[in-house]
Amino acid sequence: MNDNVKNEIGGSVGYKLVTGENCLPFASPDSSLMQRAGFIGSHCG
Questions:
Q1: Which InterPro entries does the annotation name (predicted)?
Q2: Do the beta carbons of residue 44 and residue 19 sit within 8 Å?
Q3: In a 3-state reduction of DSSP, which class is residue 34?
Q4: Helix residue spans in 1-45 (DSSP H)
């Protein structure tokens, strides 16, 4: 977040990662989905 710069409606610009409830994918580790997008098996934080 950048509190020194404001957007058109007066809010701070930028992004903030917010942790919350989530789950791992239900796809099998051997599935084509997990082979193409294996990063979805890891969480940030």
A1: Cu_amine_oxidase_C_sf (IPR036460)
A2: yes
A3: helix
A4: 32-36
Identify the three-state secondary structure at position 40: helix
Q: In a 10 Å sphere around its CB, with 0-12 CB exposed, 13-18 middle and 19+ buried, how is residue 34 labelled? A: middle
The pLDDT score that the predictor gives to residue 44 is 66
Closest to 29 measured CA to CA, from 39, 42, 19, 38: 38
d(CA 40, CA 10): 34
Mean pLDDT along residues 31-42: 90
**CA atoms of 27 and 45, how far apart (whole Å):** 22
- Report field, pTM of the whole predicted structure over 0.70: no
